[in-house]
Amino acid sequence: MTTVGVIAEYNPFHNGHLLQLREIRRRFPDAGIIVAMSGSFTQRGTVAVLDKWSRAEAAVRHGASLVLELPVVFATRSAQYFASGGVRLFDRLGVVDLLAFGSECDNLAKLQSIRKKIEAAENDGFKNRLRDGGSYAAALTKTAAPDDLVRQPNVILALEYLRALSHIDSPVVPLPLPRFNAGHHEQHLPAVDTETAVASASAIRAALSAFLAGADKSLDDALRVVPDVTKEMLLQAKAHGFNDSSMLFRPVLSRILADETNVLRSIVGVSEGLEHRLRRAAFSARSYDELIEAVQSKRYPRARIRRLLLHLLLGLSADDAESFNEQGPLYARVLAFNDDGRRLLRNIKKRAEIPVVARTARFLPMRALESGGLSPAQKMLSFDLRATALASLTSIPVGCPPANADFSVSPIYLTI
């Protein structure tokens, strides 16, 4: 059986994601599809609109066979670490044949050509441009391409997938697919209500935020571009207002104002005196957005600041991040699966380089978490547990899902 891997966030799962899974099924009707999905927080440093089990269930109900959690120490980093974490997770499973990904450019030969230019130029200007304060996309454009192609977010991710596969000499074959949704930052929501009505996840999240701010119609607009399963989940989540990263404002302030300067300086992403900039902003900011706005700059864009604040709350140090980058994912944590996924799991357990984690308490007992002395894999997983607990603070009332959900919620098995 051909096995196709997909690295995703599904924040939330929408019609574009549905069409992508259908396209994979059209090309490989009998394939097993494994998704490596962000958990409680996403690559932008924001909490996911729906909890990870709900999003994993939506994926399995619409074509995925098995959904694994991409550890938060990779899922909430910049593009190169996000991509590398997903690629190395699939490589270590020992069963993945193809890596499918959507891109504004689905010409593999062209993408590989740009990837080779980047790798050839890494010691000749690319890293210098990053050090001089340029964005990652701008550095790529100036180094490797004469046009704006590599400024497209999904092209950047595509290139990082290719670089990660090349770096570890993986046998997994890349499979670029045309994007089945609107532009990454497109804020337009179509008025029609069909499975082919597609909008970006950014537009859907913006509509949900507008609903929270009092624009009642915006929720109806968002529901038009998601499958029925996601629609039902969003309507249920409406009762507690959807997860909202702005609820982390006070916890963030408490860390910035109470921690020693050397502790702030140790967090991954904090450099060149940024800890002082954070503290000054914390004295005057009146909201999460104001805090981010006060700290962000050309050198430190908003997405980087959001990630930094999340890592501060998680306690992810630069040393830990570097260690995790060197080790790669150390477990395959199961969120949801169907019968095909069950067969894949049996095969994975025979061939994988890393353990499969179905029950958190067996792999990381609470007593071990409290006593310390964790193995590298347990330490990596402990950050996923912190992320779930932190996400529980972002709903009203607090605790949806509960802070201990990683211990109380089992992987979802769907007989469909």
Kindly summarize this structure in a few lines:
53% of the residues lie in helices and 10% in strands. With 416 residues, the chain is α/β, with parallel strands linked by helices.
**SSE series:** EHEHEHHEHHHEHHHHHHHHHEHEHHHHE
The CA-CA distance between the termini, in Å, is 19 Å
Number of strands: 8
What is the percentage of strand-forming residues? 5-15%
Query: How much helical structure, as a percent, in the residues?
Result: 40-55%
Question: Structural class, judged by helices and strands?
Answer: alpha/beta
Low-confidence stretches: none
Computed CA radius of gyration, to the nearest angstrom: 20 Å
Q: Any idea what the shape is? A: globular
How many strands, which pairing sense, and closed or not: the largest β-sheet? 8 strands, mixed
The mean pLDDT is 90
Write the layout of secondary structure elements.
Elements: E1 3-8, H1 15-27, E2 32-38, H2 52-61, E3 66-70, H3 72-75, H4 79-93, E4 98-103, H5 108-131, H6 136-144, H7 153-167, E5 173-178, H8 201-212, H9 216-223, H10 228-237, H11 249-258, H12 261-266, H13 274-284, H14 288-295, H15 302-314, H16 318-327, E6 332-337, H17 339-351, E7 356-357, H18 360-363, H19 366-371, H20 376-391, H21 405-408, E8 412-413
Parallel strand pairs: 1-2, 1-4, 2-3, 4-5, 6-7, 6-8
Antiparallel strand pairs: 3-6
Helix pairs in contact: 4-7, 5-6, 5-7, 8-9, 11-15, 13-14
